[in-house]
Every structure is written in C-alpha cells, then in structure tokens.
DNA sequence: GTTGAAAAGTGAACTCG
DNA sequence: CGAGTTCACTTTTCAAC
C-alpha cells in the first residue's frame, strides 16, 4: 500500500463508480494498471467492497440514537457482536473505555421503531441496562477518510 | 421511491459497482430501465453518490473515539458544524439530547494523533469542555441500511 | 503500458397501459 | 405521458502480450 494506492483509494472514496480510465488519469496510470491496483487492494482486504451513499432522510430512517450498553459480569466481545448483529437497526457497535461496556449507533424510522429495536437489544441476557442519547440533527457525515 | 427503487438500492448497498444489467436482472428490469431509475434516484438526492468500503485497519486510522462536546451558552448548530468541518479527523457529528450539546465520532492514526485532533476541536471558542470515550474494538460496522 | 475482443453504458426510437 | 423495451453505437473492462 503505497502513495499511489492511497490516491486511488481517495478517488474511489469520492466516486466509487469511477472508471479505471478516470482513476488512472488522476494518478498517472493507464486504465489496466489502475484496475490491477484496485484488484490487488480488494484481494488484500484493504478494499472490502463498494456501496451507495444514501441520503438517510430520503428513505425513512430519520431517527438516530447512540446507546451505551452496560453488561452483567464479563461478556466476551464475540458474544456481544453475535447477538447485536441480529438487530438490523444497529448500524455500528464497539466496545469502549469508561463505565459502559459498549456503544451502539442505531437508526430507525421513528421513535416508536427505535424503541422496539432497543427492546430487542435489551433482550440479550447479559445486558443489564442501556443509556441512550437521541440525535437531534446531524452536522457532519463523512463516509470515512 | 417505490418497491423497485428500494430493491435497486439494496443491490447497490451490497455492491456499489454492480452493472445496470445485474441490477436489472435482480429486480426484473432491463439494463436501461435500471439505469434510468438509478439516475432518477441520484437526481432526486436519495442517492448521494458511491464510495468504496475500506478496512479501517488496513490504512492507518485504527484509533477511534466518541467525544461529547459541551458548549458555553447557546451555540447554533450551523456555527458548530462550520468549525468542526475544518477538522478532518471528525468523521461524524450531531447535536444530541441530554447534557452534552454534541457528539463527535473521531478517527486517527494513533492516540497521539487523536489528542492533536481533539485539541483542534477544543480550539473553538464556544466549546467549554469535552468528554471522550475511546473505542477498544469495533464489533459491527454496517454501511447503512 | 499497449492492444483488441467481449461486456457494459447510454441515447434514441418505439410500445404499452 | 410515464415507464419499459429493443436496438444501435460508444465507452469501459480485462486478459494476453
């Protein structure tokens, strides 16, 4: 993963459907050379795939929340991941430092839908309680850099 | 935005570089019809664009944190956004319910880099103090659904 | 990096409810 | 008319050199 790979990744972050010709032109490579680099990045796992960036409000899921999860005793991260994966409203989850065991990023159509999803999260036997913060307005949403 | 549009979006969430032929095959349309729908979704703003999904660890920014921001007095969300946008390590930001005014999602190469970025965030005159939680391990990272 | 065959993208003309 | 289809034509992909 060198400087050119980085610049290729930058191109793809801006436009995931850029043609290999365009990518090559921006980094000073021919289209096949650019494609070979992208293929290599995919094979190595650095590039997981490609996706569409949606306007969250444009299709329903306008209600977001961040939820701190407090567990009973010691729960392995693996167990926690497996149970949280079953709740599609959980967009992101991570174990964190501090008093809470994990922090979840959740999204739902509305408050009612969010509440239902949080009940499903709390169904897990190891979860003691949760503390949630509702998102009022999103200021920044950068895909990743 | 009807049922077919939803299914097209699902295809693109799974593979943002899917060909119009593939998309059409999955939703029962010809390639040009699929393309016209995707073009329409882009024009309407429902689709913002396309991007690459990276393995976060594969290129450097392995250190993540969630930062609660407490402001002095009343700060407009617009002002806050404008100053936070100047810090590239801020991947996401939103105003929230509860004691804090905003919650930031930040990423950096390492703890030292993160500390520098947080200093830049705190440079803003309206920010009183911050409380941060370091991410230990990421359990789930769904692009969005 | 270059080449060339196969595949995908894309606009136009056409058809159906 | 809006939405789909087929058809021609251009551009891109991609494997071989």
Count of alpha and pi helical runs of chain A: 5
Tell me the CATH superfamily of the largest domain in chain A.
Lrp/AsnC effector binding domain/regulation of amino acid metabolism (RAM) domain
Task: List unreliable stretches of 5+ residues of chain A.
Answer: none
User: What is the name of the CATH topology of the largest domain in chain A?
Assistant: Alpha-Beta Plaits
Rg value of chain A: 20 Å
* Biggest interface, residues from each chain: A-B, 59 and 59 residues
CATH class of the largest domain in chain A reads Alpha Beta
**CATH architectural grouping of the largest domain in chain A:** 2-Layer Sandwich
Helix share bin of chain A: 25-40%
Overall mean pLDDT of chain A stands at: 94
Please state the oligomeric state of the protein chains shown: homodimer
Specify the overall morphology of chain A.
elongated
Total strands of chain A:
5
How would you characterize the largest beta sheet of chain A? 4 strands, antiparallel
Q: What is the number of domains of chain A? A: 2
> Strand content of the residues of chain A, in percent?
25-35%
Salient structural properties:
DNA-binding; elongated; Arc Repressor Mutant, subunit A; Alpha-Beta Plaits; four-stranded antiparallel sheet; 145 residues; 32% strand
């Amino acid at each position: 993963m060198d400087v050119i790979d980085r610049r290729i990744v930058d191109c793809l972050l801006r436009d995931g459907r850029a043609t290999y010709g365009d990518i090559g032109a921006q980094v000073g490579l021919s289209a096949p050379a650019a494609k070979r680099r992208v293929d290599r990045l995919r094979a190595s796992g650095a590039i997981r795939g490609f996706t569409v960036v949606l306007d969250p409000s444009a299709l329903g899921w306008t209600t977001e929340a961040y939820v701190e999860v407090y567990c009973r005793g010691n729960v392995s991260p693996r167990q926690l991941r497996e149970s949280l994966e079953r709740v599609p409203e959980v967009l992101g989850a991570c174990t964190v430092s501090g008093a809470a065991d994990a922090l979840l990023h959740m999204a739902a159509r509305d408050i009612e839908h969010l509440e239902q999803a949080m009940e499903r999260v709390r169904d897990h036997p190891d979860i003691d309680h949760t503390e949630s913060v509702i998102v009022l307005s999103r200021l920044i949403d950068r895909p990743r850099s």
